[in-house]
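Record passed on here:
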Amino acid sequence: MEFFNLIFCPNSPPYVWSANGVSKCLDDLVFGFGVNVVSVILVAALGITKRKARANLRINPGETILFHVLPVIGALVACIDIAFLLRPTFNSYPVFYHEWLLRLSQLLVWVTILLVSKYNCCFIVFSDWLLCVWWFIKALCWIPHLQAIFSSSQAVICLKESLRLLLDVMFGILIIYIRMKRASLKSSLAEDLLLSHEMDIEKGHQLDHEKAHSIWKVISFKAISSVLEHGAGQQLDFEDLLELPVDMDPLSCHLILLSSWERQRKTGHPSLFRAICSAYGWSYIQLGFLKILNDCLGFAGPLLLNKLIRFLQEEAGGENFEGYIFAISLGLTSILKSFLDTQYTFHLSKLKLKLRSSIMATIFRKCLCVSLAERSKFSEGEIQTFMSVDADRTVNLCNSFHDMWSLPLQIGVALYLLYTQVKFAFVAGTAITILLIPVNKWIATAVADATKSMMKQKDERIRRTGEFLTYIRTLKMYGWELLFSSWLMKARSFEVTYLSTRKYLDAWCVFFWATTPTLFSFCTFGLYALMGNQLDAATVFTCLALFNNLISPLNSFPWVINGLIDAIISTSRLSRFLCCPEIETETFSNNHSSCTDEYSCVTSEDVAVVINEASCMWSSNEQEQLVMDRISLSLSKGHFVAVVGEVGSGKSSLLNCILREMKVVSGFVYSSGSIAYVPQVPWILSGCIRDNVILGDEYDPRRLSDVLKACAMDIDVSRMNGGDMAFVGEKGVNLSGGQKARLALARAIYHGPDIFLLDDVLSAVDAEVAQWILSNAILGPLMNQKTRILCTHNLQAISSADTVVLIDKGRVRWVGSPLQSSISSYIPPCLREDFIISFKDQNQDNDVDAQESILMESDDIHVLEEAPYSLEDEQRKEGRVEPVTYKNYAVFCGWSITILTCLSAIFMQASRNGNDLWLSYWVDTTGVDKEKYQTSFYLIVLCIFCVVNSLLTLVRAFSFAFGGLRAAVQVHDRLLKNLVNAPVQFFDQTPSGRILNRLSSDLYTIDESLPFILNILLANFVGLLGIAIVLSYVQVMFLLLLMPFWCIYNKLQFYYRSTSRELRRLDSVSRSPIYASFTEILNGSSTIRAFKNEDVFFSRFTEKVILYQRTSYSETIANLWLSLRLQLLAAVIVCFVAVMAVVGSHGHLLISFGSPGKVGLALSYAAPIVSLLGNFLTSFTETEKELVSVERVLEYMGIAQEKLHGCQILDTNWPLHGNVEFLNVTLKYMPSLPAALSDITCTFTGGTQNGIVGRTGAGKSSILNVLFRLNQLSGGRILVDGVNIANISLRDLRSHFSVVPQTPFLFEGSLRDNLDPFGVNGDLKIWDSLAKCQVEDEVKTMGGLDMHVKESGTSFSVGQRQLLCLARAFLKSSKVLCLDECTANVDTSTALKLQNAITSECRGITVITIAHRIPTVLNMDTIFILDDGSLVEQGNPQVLLQDKMSRFSSFVQASSTSN
């Protein structure tokens, strides 16, 4: 460097770098001339190499104008600089040659840019990545130059060089923006759709909605004005929202992420994080350039403040206009930063919304494509958490990742600027920061561990919540809702334990980082004074401004770390789920053939299904037991195949094996052609009848009518309100079991596949309807040419089959004709004769009379046992958040904690303001009378302020954490209590996804988001209050601005808040359908895959996501609209205070502004208003938005409750006899509907067995509904042992009855807990009940009573689940036992054994059985026949059988024909 100075800069100082920067010669030659020459060469080279390139790049006219105007302005400024150099030359003053080189090279750069911009390739040249990177480096080379310039006090030179830098930076931002646009066009899959609209750049092009505005309208977010105007006057609706830009289409975003993920999967070690980086990384990196500029511009304020205070200290030391330049520049800097800040936030928010829709769509698609066996590794609650929590946490990666380098950069620059002010005294403050690094590292590690554990407990709680909501009707009949709620509370308590760990660790983070600026100030100024330096106003208040710049990054850093940890944990969880193998369907091609040892070669023309030596299991865990063991089977096309076997033999597993839902360990499974699947538990969509049948296919009214008639659903549908457009509730809650089964069958027939897989579809309907379905649907013209595989126990179906497959313990034992002797072992001896007769009747086709009987009597069928509910749109409140919502949340937190938190925050801010006022007093007194006080006195008082501030900060942090935890516990407990006590009708009318949204997403907001934003709101409020008070004290003129400023501010916030509240409510309402849809497809994914309807449901899901994205996008634009205007308003305040300070310093005003210390304090306090005002209203609005979750939870806390208490005190042994009397009982599900039960009077005599018979929809299940008081009677009363059940405590009543529901219910846990959850029975008694129910051997084989039952009891078949529910009822030993089709899903032999067991074990017990199988009621004491809600016949079955004219006799006749 000495050689360089000697040769090139002989007249320069001997140093290269000092506190004032590099030498001017070195700066001009290297950082000026050298950089400009490289820029010229680079632009020229790119222009020559790419002169023939062309691209359809959509550029705004405004952008084009700006692209040409900036170089012109730059060239003009360079010419002015050259003119200024010519002036001293003409006056014989020497000008150094390096100054000429610098100015001429600057002109050459802009002239070269202008020349290249004349060519068509200009946008391609200037968007080249190399030039973008170089322009960023070029901006960094300004740093030493600016340091030298700003070390002087020449305002004109500072302003001129700032303008040159601004031109360079704006041009750099413009070319980076164009580069981002090119990158987004390359990655956008919608580009092909827009090519027809694109034109050459010179001729114009079609613009997106935000590009159709002028540049000013775009950067000022005027697009949202129409929404704000509408929202200020009335309630917003979805039609009023902004449309999404083309590049934010969820489908396109999903495909971008999916392609990146598929590339990751090919590497063998896929990572969702790397896939996200591949999909959106470049756009994200480009935003980083804008963030660097924005962050660096934030430090211009303290530097200009330093210049202004030094100017004021010198009084007459400078010209008047220099002070005004500094004051106005301070305001202009704030304005420029406002625009940069909002633009960065806008583009980052767009990127986050793209990523969110991508992740949500990817999770949804994965659930559609992954088999049940693979999905079994994850609980349903865990998968729902992926969508509701992990997706949002992964999106937060966008915030945290840039902040991870941005915050240290801001801290580093602030520390360097502190060094320039107080030299090495800043080391004292830095030492505190360094000491806190290991502390925060330990806290971050502990937070990560607590988060992992908390997420596991959250998954478990949500899983149990979903289980609770799914089986709420059964739980209420059992009287187990309190038991389940206690388990939920236990899971919640574990979750809260880890949540409290997080909260208190976060409180320590808040304490350390909130007190750091005060400690920093005390240590730095203390050491600076002790080193013998005198504090002045410029030094102190520049440092204070820098401390304020440190507060945000220091306070944000722990949250950023926590957010990054949460995001990494969530991405790893999602990666594990997305890595699950997807179903690869293998079908025959036309020339494919399959040869096995057992079967000869067959071609796809002959065979529908081929299974060869296939072993399958229900889990990907290799240690799991095989469910299907080395089975081989070949089924011909067009055949009707009946699959038979005992309960749990593997019939349903065979169908799932064909569907590839099970894991095939060995062998192969092939199927030829399309498949339709009807599961044993029908999957019903919430919607209408037509949508359930069509399921995304084209609507053909004639075919729909034929299909409904074949399934005996035409009469049912005609009686529903709206016909085939009648509403069907979630999971078919307003349909009977038989109607659901027939609706699922109609869906399969309508789609007309090559292969029908029917899992026991006849068990849920009565004998006559089963016969009709078999004859007109399964064997009818709509299906008779197709391959039909039916798992069944129906004897007529077996006798009608072309082929019978006998399954036993996971193996194919026999395949053949139904008349072969081998099938006889499956048929009970007492029914073999009926089976043979049935087969003969089938051949003689003599079931016509039965069919006609059904047609004639169908007019008498009343199909609606329950109300035809219509799903109402989710309610949302209007207007502002009510004060009662704030009050309720304060009550949840506790009034004492709320008051303590507020007081500690106020006094904490007071101590901080007192600290700054004391510093102002210190610099003023040392300037006037140096001997007034010793330095130690000032330091002691400063230390007292510091200690008090630290203690109050600690109190505030921990009181907030405690209050937030208390609110989280109180809200969950009260919400759960209200849901537990809610009537069944509430759950029937409310989708479970809507309720689950409250217990997952809304509760997450109340647990974490709401306390966090409330903490920020409180800090911003007291901060603003403190600034307003201090400014009013030290700057009286501020009071003149306070009133008009407050009026404008109040108008802005009112204009914005009304719209913002509506947007957040719309956001919540649009989010619920996403979770409801997600829950539905989790339950029906196997059916969707079988029908190949993944694309249909994915399309419906993306439509819901689009609506959700539109609300979020509109909300983001509204926030930025407000933020920009508030920051501009605050910039006016800063400029006003600065200008008034300059005016007052020259005595031009009557009012004196006091000492330099007070003026400096006023200026340093005016600067943070820019961020504090925006942050306050943003945090206030965000608080209102988050309080919407409290509103929604409070809504469910006000739902109607069941009448739990009664006036009748029961004896512990009640009922002694079990005598049940119905006296004129009438039931209406809704006042406007016909009676489901009409004036029923009957007696179930104690100790007798009673059967209730009737066609589907006759009102059989309604008998149990009123007996268990699930629905309130419209008239009449029910007596049990002479006691009116309406006077009995509801839970006491239900606990004294036993029930086996139509839909078997098993929960995840041990089998022992499922059978005896209260632990009142010993093992011997439990085993005895299992033996009576014919499942003892299966339980022993699967691991005994301590075996783990999977979610929803999927460890067992549906038939086995019914038997276990019966065993549970035997253990209860109640005097009243209700059986609702408990043998519908078991084979005939097992059904007869169970009937004998019930007869022998239930002597002296009143048994009320709802049955479709007539043989199960033949030996009962009394039967009751219902029709259309009325009791039409009752008596002993044997007596009624003798009367050929009786209803029961006709039922028996139809049943014998069916069986």
